[in-house]
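Deliverable D2.4 — example input (structure tokens):
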């Protein structure tokens, strides 16, 4: 008797082990639940088996209605014999379902099934938390035995692990799908933004630039973009990259003026571990841009050593890390920008002529805004639309007199300054129509500078009025150059020290 029982138990254990192996290779939750139900039915020699999973947020239990079906049954987590097992964590073995107080007849009513005997155990995860119930129905002969209870409990333990793994995999897959979708969406946005180049302007000077960008779309020539600060050099570089065959490869921008000479080389080419104590190896911007585009901003500020190294990369398509021995092949398209006169720098011996011709295969010059005033209304409206879209406001508009003022202003900070001014006006406007009042009452600015001083300013002495004008111009220049004192000084025709002295006098800036 005892040995027969232990032989039976061995069989059951072997069967459970076999089921575990199958469960562990199933990663899809739906198929896994089917698999567990099917195997449990065999193991316990019963008519049906199902797993009920706890939806803790809704405090409900759910299960598949039948094997292979995708229909889901849901009910309150305390209902039925499964609910009872979940609530108490106890094994429930019922010989006559319809006479059991916990039995929930609604399921039979719905499915037309007649339940006689029920065995239910709680399903716990590895942390001991109850995540559902495992239920077997209608033992083929007699009632569920103590051995069945043990077998179902053992199976439930392993099922829990497989279920949690499948749930996790499902969640990862969903997150992954979401990311892929988001990424595709972002790409569409970027492409829309730059597909038409994002370069606004209908006059012949801007149109010439647009045509040039279109012409070089499929070639990978190096391009030099020149122009004053804020004229759209970086925008043009992005337009070139994002309409090129490299659009889905990286666009890496590096401002050569922002880095001291000592750091620039390792930033560009990377550095090998151990060059100095504590130095970790790091890849440089050239390698980050591999297969894509490297945009070197303010290229006129490169040191002679860095110039020589960049020339070598362009000629030989290999680079060497600081402290590195083996050359590393790279495939990078170079776009460069500067607001310096590079030919003059060559004359002064500050810039290599051979590098200049390498990067200037195509030359794009961005005109200052004062030379393309005809574009101001279109640009201003474009920036206003951008403001509305980003701030969720309804369509705002400029009153004609505001547009007139914008068209007449000097704009030393070029399109960037115009953009900032439009954003400021839009943010301060009380109504959808931006009028002269919004523009003038609270906001000192470049607008109207060409007009005679009005109002209280008439009463001021000439000296005061000049000081006021000077202060405003300095503020504008600093804003237009993003507080770059060097550039602001150049715009104002001052030396840097001269600018600093004046800033002190008017208590401006840091
Ligand atoms: N023609 C244009 N159409 C639309 N937007 C423009 C145009 N020109 C410039 N902009 C916008 O003006 C702003 C300044 O442009 P960008 O940063 O490209 O200037 P930059 O020449 O690189 O300036 P800096 O020399 O100061 O770095 C950006 O917001 C850019 O989108
Ligand atoms: Mg720039």
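Example output (designed residues):
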């Amino acid at each position: 008797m005892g040995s027969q029982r232990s032989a039976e138990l061995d069989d059951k254990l072997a069967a459970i082990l076999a089921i575990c192996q199958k469960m562990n290779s199933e990663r899809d939750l739906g198929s896994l639940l089917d698999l567990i139900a099917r195997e449990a039915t065999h193991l316990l020699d019963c008519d049906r088996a199902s797993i009920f999973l706890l939806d803790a947020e809704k405090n409900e239990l759910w299960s598949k209605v039948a094997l292979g079906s995708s229909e889901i049954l849901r009910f309150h987590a305390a209902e039925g014999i499964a609910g009872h097992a979940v609530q108490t964590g106890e094994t429930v073995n019922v010989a006559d379902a319809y006479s059991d107080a916990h039995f929930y007849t609604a399921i039979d009513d719905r499915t037309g099934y007649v339940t006689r005997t029920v065995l239910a155990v709680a399903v716990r995860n590895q942390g001991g938390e109850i995540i559902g119930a495992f239920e077997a129905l209608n033992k083929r002969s007699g009632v569920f035995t103590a051995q069945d209870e043990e077998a179902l409990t053992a199976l439930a333990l392993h099922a829990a692990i497989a279920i949690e793994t499948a749930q996790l995999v499902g969640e990862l897959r969903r997150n992954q799908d979401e990311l892929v979708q988001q990424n595709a969406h972002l790409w569409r946005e970027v492409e829309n933004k730059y597909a038409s180049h994002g370069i606004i302007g209908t006059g012949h000077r801007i149109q010439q630039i647009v045509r040039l960008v279109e012409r070089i779309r499929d070639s990978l020539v190096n391009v030099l973009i020149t122009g004053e600060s804020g004229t759209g050099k970086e925008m043009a570089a992005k337009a070139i990259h994002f309409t090129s065959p490299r659009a889905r490869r990286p666009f890496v921008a590096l401002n050569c003026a922002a880095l001291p000479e000592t750091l620039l080389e390792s930033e560009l080419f990377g550095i090998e571990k151990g060059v100095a104590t504590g130095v970790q190896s790091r890849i440089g911007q050239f390698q980050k841009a591999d297969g894509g585009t490297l945009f070197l901003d303010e290229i006129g500020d490169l040191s002679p050593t860095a110039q020589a190294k960049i020339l070598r990369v362009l000629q030989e398509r290999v680079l060497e890390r600081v402290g590195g021995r083996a050359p590393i092949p790279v495939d990078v398209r170079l776009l460069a920008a500067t607001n310096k006169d590079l030919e003059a720098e060559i004359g002064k011996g500050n810039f290599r002529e051979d590098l200049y011709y390498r990067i200037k295969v195509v030359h794009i010059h961005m005109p200052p805004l004062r030379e393309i005033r005809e574009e101001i209304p279109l640009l201003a409206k474009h920036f206003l639309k951008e403001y509305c879209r980003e701030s969720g406001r309804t369509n705002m508009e400029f009153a004609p007199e505001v547009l007139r003022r914008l068209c007449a202003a000097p704009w030393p900070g070029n399109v960037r300054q115009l953009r900032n001014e439009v954003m400021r006006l839009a943010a301060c406007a009380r109504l959808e129509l931006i009028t002269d009042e919004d523009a003038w009452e609270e906001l000192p600015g470049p607008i109207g500078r060409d007009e005679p001083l009005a109002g209280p300013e008439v009463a001021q002495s000439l000296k005061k009025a000049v000081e006021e004008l000077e202060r405003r111009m300095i503020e504008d220049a600093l804003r237009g150059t993003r507080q770059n004192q060097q550039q602001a000084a150049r715009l104002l025709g001052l030396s840097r020290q001269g600018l600093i002295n004046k800033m002190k006098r008017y208590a401006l800036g840091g």
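The pocket of magnesium ion (ligand 2) is lined by residues 233-234, 297 (CB under 6 Å).
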